[in-house]
C-alpha cells in the first residue's frame, strides 16, 4: 500500500483506520503459521481500498485460510459462528452452560424459579462449592448491538427478587450468591461500572480481557457446529433444530447425521473436521 492510510467501514457503519496488526493477531489466534499469515496479508494488501467493509476483509481472509487449512479457518470464523447460532438465544444458552460445566459448575438450562414477588425464567442455573449462580444470556444477532446499563439494572432486580425467596428457605442446600450476564456482544462502560458496583459478573467475546468467551471456547475445545466449513448454512440450521450445538456432540451423536440424510462421504468429512477441531 506504500504507506497509504486505508479506512474500513465497520459493521456499525463507522470508519476506522485499517490495522494489519489486528488482522495478523486474528490470524495468529486461528493457529495459522507465520508463512500462511504473511501470504494471506500480502494477498489482501492487493485488494484493499478506502471504505472496504470489515465483512469483505473477513471473507477474503477466511477463504484464503480455508484453502490453506480448513481447521484454522474454522477457528478464525469463531466470532461469526456464534452469531450464526441464532435467531433464537437457546443455542447460545446451551453453549454458555457447556462452558460453565467445563469450569466445574453443575448446570441447568432454562429453569423457572420463584421469586419473592413473581416467577422468573432463568437462562442458566449454575452451582459450585455450595453456591448457586443465576446466568442471564443476552444473545444479539447484530454485531453493532451493545449491552447498555439498563440490562444489568434489570438483571439485578430479578436476582434480588429470586435471592430473597431462595435464601429464606430453611431447607436450602446452596446459597444463591451472584448473577452473571453472558453476551456475544460488548458491554458499555456504564454497564461495566454498574455491574462492578453491585457484584454482577460479566462475560462477553473478549471481556474480561484474556478470559472472554473466545478464550474459554479455545481452552476447552467447545466450538459450535457453525464453525465447521464442511457444513452449509442450511445443514447447520438442521442440526441446531435437532439440538446439536457443539462439535463435540457430533462425535458422540453421529447417528443424527444419518437421520438428517447426509451421505457416508459427507459424514466422514464432517466428523473428521469436528475431531481435528476438538483436539486442538
Task: Profile the largest sheet.
Answer: 5 strands, mixed
* Number of structural units classed as domains: 3
Query: How many E-type strands?
Result: 7
Percent range for β-strand residues: 15-25%
Estimated helix fraction = 40-55%
Number of helices: 13
Strand order of the largest sheet: 3-4-5-6-7
- How big is the Rg? 21 Å
Low-confidence stretches: none
- Given helix and strand content, the structural type is alpha/beta
What number is the mean pLDDT?
93
- How far do the termini sit from each other? 35 Å
Under CATH, the topology of the largest domain can be stated as Trna Endonuclease, Chain: A, domain 1
List SSEs in N-to-C order: EEHHHHHHEEEHEHEHHHHH
Write the layout of secondary structure elements.
Layout: E1 7-9, E2 15-17, H1 20-29, H2 34-45, H3 54-68, H4 70-76, H5 78-83, H6 90-102, E3 106-114, E4 119-128, E5 131-138, H7 150-167, E6 175-183, H8 189-198, E7 201-203, H9 213-220, H10 233-241, H11 247-252, H12 255-260, H13 264-278
Parallel strand pairs: 5-6, 6-7
Antiparallel strand pairs: 1-2, 3-4, 4-5
What does this structure look like?
The chain has 280 residues and is of the alpha/beta class. The strands form two sheets. The protein has a five-stranded mixed β-sheet with strand order 3-4-5-6-7, with helices on both faces. A two-stranded antiparallel ribbon has the order 1-2. α3 runs antiparallel to α4 and α7 runs parallel beside α8. The longest helix has 18 residues. The radius of gyration is 21 Å and the shape is globular.
Amino acid at each position: 500500500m506504500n504507506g497509504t492510510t486505508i479506512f474500513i467501514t465497520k459493521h456499525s457503519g463507522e470508519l476506522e483506520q485499517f490495522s494489519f496488526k489486528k488482522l495478523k493477531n486474528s490470524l495468529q489466534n486461528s493457529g495459522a503459521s507465520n508463512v500462511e499469515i504473511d501470504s494471506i496479508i500480502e494477498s489482501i494488501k492487493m485488494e484493499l481500498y478506502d471504505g472496504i467493509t470489515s465483512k469483505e476483509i473477513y471473507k477474503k481472509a477466511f477463504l484464503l485460510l480455508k484453502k490453506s487449512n480448513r481447521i484454522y479457518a474454522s477457528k478464525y470464523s469463531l466470532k461469526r459462528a456464534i452469531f450464526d447460532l441464532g435467531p433464537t438465544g437457546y443455542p447460545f444458552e446451551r453453549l454458555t452452560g457447556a462452558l460453565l460445566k467445563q469450569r466445574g459448575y453443575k448446570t441447568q438450562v432454562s429453569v423457572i424459579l420463584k421469586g419473592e414477588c413473581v416467577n422468573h425464567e432463568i437462562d442458566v442455573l449454575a452451582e459450585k462449592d455450595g453456591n448457586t449462580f443465576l446466568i442471564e444470556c443476552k444473545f444479539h444477532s447484530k454485531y453493532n448491538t451493545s449491552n447498555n446499563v439498563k440490562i444489568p439494572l434489570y438483571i439485578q432486580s430479578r436476582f434480588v427478587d429470586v435471592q430473597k425467596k431462595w435464601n429464606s428457605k430453611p431447607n436450602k442446600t446452596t446459597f444463591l450468591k451472584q448473577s452473571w450476564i453472558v453476551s456475544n456482544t460488548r458491554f458499555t462502560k456504564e454497564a461495566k461500572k454498574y455491574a462492578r458496583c453491585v457484584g454482577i459478573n460479566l462475560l462477553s467475546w473478549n471481556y474480561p480481557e484474556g478470559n472472554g468467551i473466545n478464550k474459554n471456547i479455545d481452552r476447552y475445545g467447545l466450538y459450535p457446529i457453525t464453525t465447521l466449513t464442511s457444513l452449509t448454512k442450511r445443514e447447520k440450521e438442521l442440526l441446531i433444530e435437532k439440538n446439536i450445538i457443539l462439535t463435540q456432540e457430533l462425535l458422540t451423536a453421529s447417528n443424527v447425521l444419518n437421520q438428517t440424510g447426509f451421505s457416508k462421504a459427507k459424514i466422514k468429512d464432517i466428523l473428521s473436521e469436528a475431531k481435528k477441531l476438538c483436539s486442538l
